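Annotators were shown the component list below and the corresponding predicted structure, then asked to write short factual statements about the assembly.
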Amino acid sequence: MSEPTPSPDLPLVAFDLIGVLAEPSWREIDRAPDRERWHRLRVGAIEEEAFWDPASAAAYRACLRLRSDRLALVSRLRARGHRIALATNFARAWLAVIRERLGGSGLVDHWLCSAELGVAKPDPGFWAHLRALAPAVVVVDDQTANIAAARAAGLTAVWALPGADLEARLLAAIGAGGPQA
Amino acid sequence: MRGPVDYSPLLTELGLTGADAPHVLAAAAGSHARLAELRRALADAVPAGCAAFALGSLGRHESSVLSDLDLAVVYRRGTLDPADAHRAREAVAAVLRARGLDVADKTFHSAVALDDLLGDIGGRDDCNDHLTYRALLLTEGAWLANAADAAAIVEQVFGAYTAGAITRGRYLTSLSNDLHRYYRTICVDYRFKVENAGKHWAIRYFKLRHSRKLWHLANLAVFCRAALLPDEARDGWLAEHLPRPPLLRVADALRPLGGLPLCAGLVTAYDAFLAALADADTRRALDLLAYDAREDSPVFRRLRAGAERFDEAATAVVGHLWQRSPDHLVRYGLL
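Structure shown to annotators:
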């Protein structure tokens, strides 16, 4: 099957990673999570070696998995011609794991990682990077604070809440071009 | 819950300190540390299409080192062969037992297929075990292995109720009724376990009067609160709040209803219960206690007095819900 050609006329769909496309959060395998250190790691102010010990680093890589149901959704969106972005608050070192796991799937056109950008969601500076990629962007995120911030920045945002039909809500948002609850 | 459950903001709101609820705090911190450690140990334990969960006190972040572990392994038939799922369940149980955990084999003795849990809700083949899995996955299911499939599975369980086009009800009563049904089932199950199956009565009795009751109260409270939300916000709010520990669920519901101070009595009474369950001598005394000798037992009398304090606090919460959300409480919680 030939690779679909993304259309610049269609909205770019930007997926959050943890909580939307992959699990778990680092906090779920850390016995005593240090949020202050995380805030430095996620904007690239420190590297993973300064964040936690090698055993934790290895354990997180072993636990980190992509959600097959959500990858199937991404695949369908690409087949419709949408460009796909990954827009995540994540460590540089962990992003490499995700890139490797996605391999040559070609599912992701743009990778926006807070540690590489030096700014994290919900900071307006993060959304500015997304806005620069396309005139219309639809953000999919599981954090209500990020949804509110994305909308405040003029983007369309879809909350990936558990149990709801994410695909239906996303298609409605793409079709209407307006915000979805 | 992504990280450790943080009760500190609630305690501050209630005018309490850590000294008023040391066992609630210790159980939350200990449960998170236990979950983190087990997740590391089980990182490669189950294949794709299958997930392992801790239900019960560990899933509620209320466990102590003395708690047993209700292990649930759920898989997708079609993605994974049943025999492979059962082998995965055995492998997970072996890892947990090797770490000294008491893995109960009762309801959760084998891997269960997700479509069996969801294919006949309320129907002839919808057995108590399936009801148990659904209710506990939604309200106290903490993943142990394969977080990605675990999240998708829980979403699908919740989605089974929200997608019921005719039966879901405006207030998602198909789900609230199932949770009520589970609570009544375990209350009657106590009778069977003790009278017919020869199980010991005392710890079960006090769990019914504390943790089971709090679980039920928390469900009543969140559905009363959710009923007052705009229709389009209700499912999301329920999905977000149902997995939270019961004390926080009650607080989440009462805060916007002006009843938050009523949580103080619940927290302190529940703390005394968790203190008892975390104490080996108390557990031993309850395990050895004959029903006819209960009035002679200081442990029994102390825990019963605590249960009465807990009842008073719970009654005050119900009284507040009666004042602030009477239509929902009566029509959907009681009648």
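Statements collected:
1. The interface with chain A takes residues 2-4, 32-33, 35-37, 39-40, 43-44, 48, 143, 146-152, 154-155, 158-159, 161-163, 232-233, 235-236, 239-240 of chain B (CB under 8 Å).
2. The two ends of chain B are 32 Å apart (CA to CA).
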